[in-house]
UniProtKB/TrEMBL annotation:
Keywords from the named record: Kinase, Metal-binding, Transferase, Zinc
Pfam families (UniProt xref): Mob1_phocein
Binding locations of Zn(2+): 83, 88, 165, 170
Molecular function in Gene Ontology: kinase activity
Superkingdom classification of source: Eukaryota
UniProt-recorded name of the protein: MOB3C kinase
Length: 215
């Protein structure tokens, strides 16, 4: 029944963006299957995130970045009707943290945006990066660029802010939808992964630090 409940909660129509898929037959698809199998086996999440012996760390990070993008997309998609220009005129995590948007094209300086605008810019920006073959190469034998982990740090740091906003501003909606266990598991998985590979500056984790310690 839990699976059925989650199916209703995470209705496909509500997905914020179409899911990114790994091509069957590729090394990354095999890694993705391996990661999903350990996740479903109920293993300790701290063990699940560890790099499997003999695998490339960049491939492992790439698989997780795309998977977290898909899953956080879905979580935000279900919340989006509660996260409006009126309810969330600032992209924030409580009174103490405000996140401004900056990119290399339209917003050259950190700019105040509402939470829905920020989320929209963020998902478009990540989608553009993971579809860029020069950054996330999918062809066999094509090396990752030197700045690959730096780019992933930036993506994951910004995805973490989605958790901050959702937990601090929309947690009652998560509970009302019966999605608390699912969101908590996704958050824990994400948290252990970024800690395992030191992918996010610890200062960025502060808004949810008490929660992380309590789980």
């Amino acid at each position: 029944t839990m699976a059925l409940c989650l199916k209703q909660v995470f209705n496909k129509d509500k997905t914020f963006r179409p899911r990114k898929k790994f091509e069957p037959g590729t090394q990354r698809f095999e890694l993705y299957k391996k990661a999903q199998a350990s996740l479903k086996s109920g293993l300790d999440l701290k063990a699940v995130v560890q790099l499997p012996p003999g695998e490339s760390i960049n491939d492992w990070i790439a698989v997780h970045v795309v998977d977290f993008f898909n899953r956080i997309n879905l979580i935000y998609g279900t919340m989006s009707e509660y996260c409006t220009e009126r309810s969330c005129p600032i992209m924030s995590g409580g009174l103490k943290y405000e996140y401004r948007w900056q990119d290399d094209s339209k917003y050259k300086k950190p700019t105040k945006l509402s939470a829905p605008q920020y989320m929209c810019m963020l998902m478009d920006w990540i989608e553009m990066l993971i579809n860029n073959e020069d950054i996330f190469p999918t062809r066999i034998g094509v090396p990752f660029p030197k700045q690959f982990q730096q780019v992933c740090t930036k993506i994951l740091t910004r995805l973490f802010r989605v958790f901050v906003h959702v937990y601090i501003h929309h947690f009652d909606s998560i509970i009302n939808m019966g999605a608390e266990a699912h969101v908590n598991t996704c958050y824990k998985h994400f948290y252990y992964f970024i800690r395992e590979f030191s992918l996010i500056d610890h200062r960025e984790l502060e808004p949810l630090v008490r929660m992380a310690l309590a789980r």
